[in-house]
Design brief:
globular; 52% helix; Helix-turn-helix transcriptional regulator; 3-stranded antiparallel beta sheet; HTH_HxlR; transcription
């Protein structure tokens, strides 16, 4: 059995560091959105939609709202017509990039 400071004995996983991290990035598209924002720095809604196949407009909108609520993504709205909204990773969101990179590396090594 592997010892981990994140998972201790009888502590419910929801009360551990890994549980908290998973609560922020859990969801079918969250890691993909974080990935694309890391690659492109700033993206608009329709750009994200084009890069993430099969995601609906509603799901993308709700997922971006969750990421913004959790302070992983910054939404910047410009007062113009037509409306212009851009998304970028926050400092907190960028701090997840080593985890995403490790997941990518693991996938490349184990597929």
């Amino acid at each position: 059995m592997i010892e981990s400071p994140c998972i201790a004995g009888d502590t419910p996983i929801s009360e551990t560091g890994i549980g908290y991290t998973l609560s922020l990035i859990n969801g079918r598209y969250k890691i993909m959105i974080l990935y694309w924002l890391s690659v492109n720095s700033v993206m608009r809604f329709n750009q994200l939609k084009r890069h993430i196949e099969k995601i609906s407009f509603k799901t993308l909108s709700n997922t971006l709202k969750e990421l913004e609520r959790d302070e992983l993504v910054i939404r910047k709205e410009y007062p113009q017509i037509p409306p212009k909204v851009e998304y970028r990773l926050s400092m907190r969101g960028r701090s997840l990039l080593p985890i995403i990179d490790a997941m990518c590396e693991w996938g490349e090594n184990n597929r």
